[in-house]
Amino acid sequence: MPNDRFRRTPVVVTGVGAVSVAGLGADRLWTAVLDRRVLTGPVSRFDLSRYPTQRAGQVPDDALAALEHRVPPHGSRAARYLAAAVREALADAGLADGGQVGGGQVGGGQVGGGQVGGGQVDRGQADRGPVAAAGVVGLYVGSVMATRPTLDAGIGPAGLAVPGRLWATPARLLDPVREVVGRPGPAVLLASGCSVGNGAIAAGHRAVLAGEVDVAVCAGVEELSLEIFAMFTALRALAPDLVRPFDADRRGTMPAEGAGVLILERADRCAARGGRPRATVLACASAADAHHMTQPHPEGAALAATLQAVLDAARIEPDELDWVCAHGTGTPANDGVEARATAKVLTGRRRPPVSSVKGQLGHAAGAAAALEAVLAVCALTDDAIPGNVNLRSPDPACDGLDLVPAEGRRQPVSVVASPAYGFGGGVTTLLLGKGDRGAD
User: Fold this and answer.
1) Which position among 74, 205, 297, 363 bears the catalytic label?
2) Cβ atoms of 284 and 310 closer than 8 Å
3) Could you confirm whether domain 4-272 is CATH 3.40.47.10?
């Protein structure tokens, strides 16, 4: 059973990191979003001539080249995205410098049930390694395709393994991070659809509250793959030119890639080591509709349930929400449902301010929610709300929302809700507050 002392102690975000279509770094991502840059564009990595669009959110070539000097080598781009974002987040948290971090292992067991090393943590080893102030570090990572593109490269035309090619099983996604973190502790790889970035943050939050780990490294990661294009083509959900969340003329989404990372610690531990909280995790909640494999529940039941749950858990009134960082895929199926469910729960004296950054970044699948959580932390730090950049003709189905105009808003931001959907009806919603809400 969790220790009651941990239950009473707030959990804070002490560091963030990102690799995205904006390049390397959370600051670069935040600046690009505030500058209203639409970062989706032509894909140069593989031939998309058979698909309805040849555009996506691709990590720039100069950022890929820079990864070679920042993180351990690996055949999977996703693994390198993850390692680079983790390294940045640890440095931002003051738990490591900006150089090569660590050489040890996180966990040490066999892969099984999505968990790498889930047994007892030897706390006697906690003071070894370069992240000396961290204690026991847990790694919680979500992805949809994981190392699938690298796995595909190891399969020949006849479906047989190609000699000499890396056979990148999903667990290998975590290999470079073990070298970056260099700490003993649990390492968990989750695969629960496009809400999985939030799911990883929620898993790390639970572990910190329970006293299972001192620091949780929570991440979502994805690499562009032909499978993603094939999947969205089969679903008739690919946008031909731009992603237009909440617009009456929206026609679909665009795949994207990258990694987003949050470092979570107890507020008292952060204060004791002289750390700086960037945000407070007020609540996390998950639910599932089990309505359809790909279509959302027509009333957004799971989203409504999780929004209500996080408000109740944090004792927050709807009018106290400064921004809803929406899932907002730009697909005909998603946005109207999300708008109705959000408006239904967030009834108050004013309509909730809502925007989606997928119009600028595309839909990064397993990385999407984690990147949006990074942006939510930036909004709380910088007192700014991104706008709906490609919104021209708001869908009447979204009338219950205050759809933030393209230019965004400069205003105090104290509480942000960030929900994420996954296929199969799974939804996980985060509620984040200012860093000083975690003060004792």
Assistant:
1) 363
2) yes
3) yes
